[in-house]
Write a structure and sequence with these properties.
With 104 residues, the chain is an alpha+beta fold. It is 34% helix and 12% strand. The protein is built from 2 helices and 4 strands, in the order H-E-E-E-E-H. The chain has a two-stranded antiparallel ribbon with strand order 1-2. A hairpin with a 4-residue loop joins strand 1 and strand 2. The radius of gyration is 29 Å and the shape is elongated. It starts with a helix and ends with a helix.
């Protein structure tokens, strides 16, 4: 009798443990973003990396963050100076993070 009772008790405890774990799992509700993600008005999208050809040497251009270019301030062949804005990136997600961090 002891040989049959112990496995049955172990099975019941295992089943109750699984039910307990299944019930305590967090339920995640889908979240809706505060604004719609950026969309391109173009049919095709091209990604690229810039290269500035200076009189003295080639200078690579890069950003600390990736994103969609929302505005260009120069065009090919323009002369640019140090510190001059070349383009702007979509920064809605960064501004949202700053607002969230400011609340905490």
């Amino acid at each position: 009798m002891k040989r049959t009772v112990l496995p049955i008790v172990a099975a019941i405890v295992a089943i109750l443990g699984m039910i307990s774990v299944a019930r305590t799992r967090p339920k995640r509700e889908p979240t809706v973003p505060p604004t719609a993600p950026p969309t391109s008005s173009f049919e095709q999208v091209v990604a690229g990396v810039g290269l500035v050809e200076a009189n003295s040497e080639n200078i690579d251009i890069s950003c600390a963050v990736s994103g969609m270019v929302t505005q260009l301030y120069v065009k090919a062949g323009d002369r640019v100076g140090q510190g001059q804005k070349l383009f702007s990136l979509d920064d809605r997600d960064l501004r949202a993070d700053q607002q969230v961090n400011a609340l905490h």
